């Protein structure tokens, strides 16, 4: 039985590219136009796993997605890093001078702002998905409007690339996580990264004490993100990612955190794939 994967966006999107690289070129996907729809796809059993962007090297963490994973008790079972190359594309036979509007996802527009500033008379329009914009231009044969999307989208929807790799920063990477309703079955020998959520008593030094424990247990803290607890004013949940060489060190750190924290939740234990 072929596994079906939920992605945010449509075929030709960066999520689709990650699904192909992680699961194989012929992967079957459920196209979801929002992250909420993506989560519903897994929870309903429509798909078995999902690909979700979680942070970008330029724009930082996608904070609402941390909350979605936590709230819906999803498990991170893997990760994948994708180098983002943004391209300006339109119907064949046009030049940049013919373009009056550029449509794309707000993140894509932000990543290409230095290039777009060269064309102050071109209107920037935010859209739900990079690949969806490209597809719509082709299906409706829209002239004068360009999309910012991947080379995969340009090929899939037969658009001409008017300007390749227009992202402001060349070393622009997005980290994606692989989600499932059940926890990972990765062996302890392979696990060298974990995503955790914890809550602390609101008193001086409580976070510093936890960070010291992580350091003493040889944990490398690669991400820390705080989110306010809506139901408890001035109290925060902390989301952290740690990497480690030995699972035993991580197990020790986790057991100490269970004592020190008011609440501890493991969002995922998986293999680090950072290039």
TrEMBL record:
This is prephenate dehydratase. InterPro entries: ACT-like_dom_sf, ACT_dom, Preph_deHydtase. Keywords: Amino-acid biosynthesis, Aromatic amino acid biosynthesis, Lyase, Phenylalanine biosynthesis. Pathway: Amino-acid biosynthesis; L-phenylalanine biosynthesis; phenylpyruvate from prephenate: step 1/1. SUPFAM superfamilies: ACT-like (SSF55021), Periplasmic binding protein-like II (SSF53850). It is an enzyme of class 4 (lyase). It holds the Pfam family PDT. It catalyses: prephenate + H(+) = 3-phenylpyruvate + CO2 + H2O.
């Amino acid at each position: 039985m072929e596994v079906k994967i939920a992605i945010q966006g449509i075929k030709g999107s960066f999520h689709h590219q990650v699904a192909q690289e992680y699961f194989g070129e012929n992967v079957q996907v459920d196209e979801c136009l929002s992250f909420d729809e993506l989560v519903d796809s897994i929870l309903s059993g429509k798909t078995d796993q999902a690909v979700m962007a979680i942070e970008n090297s330029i724009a930082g963490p996608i904070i609402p997605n941390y909350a979605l994973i936590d709230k819906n008790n999803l498990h991170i079972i893997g990760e994948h890093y994708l180098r983002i190359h943004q391209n300006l594309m339109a119907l064949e036979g046009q030049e940049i001078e013919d373009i009056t509007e550029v449509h794309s996802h707000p993140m894509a527009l932000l990543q290409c702002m230095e290039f777009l500033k060269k064309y102050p008379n071109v209107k920037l329009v935010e859209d739900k998905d990079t690949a969806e914009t490209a597809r719509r231009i082709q299906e409706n044969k829209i002239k004068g409007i360009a999309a910012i999307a991947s080379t995969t989208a340009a090929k899939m929807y037969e658009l001409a690339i008017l300007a390749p790799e227009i992202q402001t920063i060349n070393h622009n990477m997005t980290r994606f996580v692989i989600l499932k309703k059940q926890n990972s079955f990765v062996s302890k020998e392979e696990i060298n990264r974990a995503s955790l959520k914890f809550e602390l008593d609101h008193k001086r030094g409580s976070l510093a004490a936890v960070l010291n424990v992580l350091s003493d247990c040889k944990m490398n803290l690669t991400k820390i993100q705080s989110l306010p607890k809506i139901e408890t004013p001035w109290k925060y949940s902390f989301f952290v990612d740690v990497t480690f060489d030995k699972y035993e060190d991580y197990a020790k750190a986790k057991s100490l955190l269970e004592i020190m924290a008011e609440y501890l939740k493991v969002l995922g234990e998986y293999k680090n794939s950072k290039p």
